[in-house]
């Protein structure tokens, strides 16, 4: 790896800029919202039965856009029931965005929000130190497991906090996605720092958890990545490789190989003169 290459999350403003572009150019949120609309009501159908309050834990809640959609479905299923929604999120800006979003959203009177500025491992350590083992009716971890050092242990810990009828929802890139192909092949040459995780189904089976998987088809328009000097394309390349200023800091050999890989059918599909990256996600619902 070239010494000048560094991970994208190390430059927070560039990370946010590239992430914003990723959302604009992909169907990431649309496919999640469709899942929440069509599948989530069935998944949460018994989590609040007989309860006067429902406890929800959002691990890596980000700016809250998806969280609020999830909460609206729980409100619809259990009208009038008090909802305690606690959020684990290490980033100040994201928490601020989340709070602003809550302030602008109507009909949240029965929801109590609590934010914890910490990582999932910091939360776990804090709870263990306090010997607190609060149980939850619904825990979700959306697009955050890439940043966890020991994924099976993290899943096991949060799984241990589930109530009898609760559910743990994990959303992350699918094993069939272009991300998996790209990172498996070139991860060691990029600044990924153990960022990705490919065999989650196998690991879940190994630790004996009962789960169901839903595939969420999604694409990202990466056409601009192939236009030399295109600013948006360069930012999307940063996001794809998790490398800050990838096109400027990667070796010519690595850059050529990545660009070649991105056009292969394992990663993308060319349609109407555009290149669409396979951004498929997996939604994994784990039982107590």
Automatic annotation (TrEMBL):
Residues given in the record as S-adenosyl-L-methionine binding sites: 60, 89, 94, 120, 142
Keywords from the UniProt entry: Methyltransferase, S-adenosyl-L-methionine, Transferase
GO molecular function, one term: histamine N-methyltransferase activity
Pfam families: Methyltransf_23
Domain of life: Eukaryota
Gene Ontology terms: cellular component: centrosome; cytosol; nucleoplasm; synapse
Any GO BP annotation: methylation
CDD domains recorded: AdoMet_MTases
Binding-site residues for substrate, renumbered to this chain: 28, 279
Gene3D superfamilies: Vaccinia Virus protein VP39 (3.40.50.150)
Assembly and interaction partners: Monomer.
Protein's recorded name: Histamine N-methyltransferase
Organism: Gopherus evgoodei
Gene it is expressed from: HNMT
